[in-house]
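We close this part of the discussion by returning to an individual protein. Part of our work consisted of pairing the sequence of a single chain with a tokenised description of its backbone. What the numbers capture is local backbone geometry rather than side-chain detail. The amino acid sequence and the backbone structure tokens for this protein are reproduced below.
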Amino acid sequence: MADFTVGDDHFRLDGKPVRLLSGALHYFRVHEAQWDHRLSMLRAMGLNCVETYVPWNLHEPRPGRFRDVAALGRFLDAAQRAGLWAIVRPGPYICAEWENGGLPAWVTGRFGRRVRTRDEEYLGAVERWFTALLPQVVQRQIGRGGPVIMVQAENEYGSYGTDRVYLQRVAGMLRERGVTVPLFTSDGPEDHMLTGGSVPGLLATANFGSGAREAFEVLRRHQPKGPLMCMEFWCGWFEHWGAEPVVRDPAQAADALREILECGASVNIYMAHGGTNFAGWAGANRSGPLQDQDFLPTVTSYDYDAPIDEYGRPTEKFWQFRKVLAEYADGPLPKLPSEPAGLAAPVRAELTDWASLTAVLEALGDEESVPSGVPPTFEELGVDRGVVRYRVGVPGPRRPYTLGVAGLRDRAVVYVDGVREGVLSDENGTLDEPVAGPAEVELWVESLGRVNYGPRLGEPKGITGGVLHERQFLHGVRARALRLEAFEEPDAVAEVAFGSAEGAGRTGLFRGTFEVAGVDGTGHAGIELLGWTRGFVWVNGFCLGRYWSAGPQRTLYVPGPVLREGVNEVWVLELEGAGAPYAELGPGVPVRTGTPGDVQV
């Protein structure tokens, strides 16, 4: 048993000063069978601690329906096996470029702008979540022989609001449920952020990617005493679909890390190993003026240009960081674990079977809603990730008028009388060609990820306004959801009516197989779909996430533990336009291909 405290100048372990050299690694972005390897890589880089968020929406997808909350406990046990302390950031909001900032869609759908405030109904939902989650943390605190040394109250709240009553309530919930280790907050090193996000009596920490001396000067204005810590040292950055790759120069990042340590501060490298946004859990951002913001969905890879890449391999940044961290280590750094091996040779999965989207919807979809005055949103349908087919009639006879969608979030493939007429988006919500009546209109709408940061957090998905013919709303809309979680069930596609993929349509569910020999020891693979447009991929029932020809990501990561000796099965759900009738699997490619530079974060 040990005692970890916040002193006037340092963190202290049983009264002795300690410096935290931490790295972020999110258990939910790494296959569980790979936790031990990735944690060993953190130790080999020179770290003594690991930090993780906890996504509420992953563990409580529907009210009161908790799913594998114990995963956090298993991860903390793995951290202790690796010889690491642990920092836990349970939210309830986490940002993390994760769907809805970790808040369940049913929470933001029910409470709207009352989330992240002192609203009693919202706080009641948080209390129930913490009651279910926190035993995993409490029983693993350092005072009970476990690895947990600190817990965060909320996350970067100063970037969002000023409700200190709410922050104090969150901190109180943590204490009331048995958290005895130090609590902390983390915010950007700006006066308004630290004013809005700090709580008296809790350690305030700062998040930044460079300029440590200036950042800590600002922090000291708000917190004259206590250990300095950069809770998120942004050593790289995330990427958006349709944008350029983001790469940070390793030497420049290492210099920024050294500056933090020269200030006598502790650090948490964000990310030490980023991992992957499996199963469509990637979030999204909004940029630009508040009333006219561009929508920026985050890619599936969360490689983050981290020192340990998405495939678990050390990068040049790893070696530069290891050199810096070795100067602050208590002794020689451990050797690296064996590097995960890729597939011995490329293989091809021939996609021989096909089912239309309508056939998949019939087999795996929800019941269709009754005709309604306005289209139900994803939140009203209880859908977090997936596709909703909206159907509505255009009365007639009438001459052709423009047809569009008000409040489309985020992308729709539109059919008129069974003929594809175009793809609409958040930015372009009107078909190019006018539509005459009578006609039957289908809109297959997909959420590309809920906003995870900023004032538009929790905005609804689907058709949030209405379907318009000229300026007239079309009423009597019916909606039917195809949830991604439907594919998680055992034998999920057994009831799907597959036929031959020869002559298949542009969209639908494609199925094929590939063989792997000597899979033992295979640590990873990469899968690429040549000429395909947008959809999701599963290998042996495990959802790798979204692919999209918009780039920059071209290859999806396949964790080695998903593969098996002999025959493996691939499913591809294509929503816009299929390409070559196969998928290519290889040993994995370098994740970042842009020109290194100084990421201004």
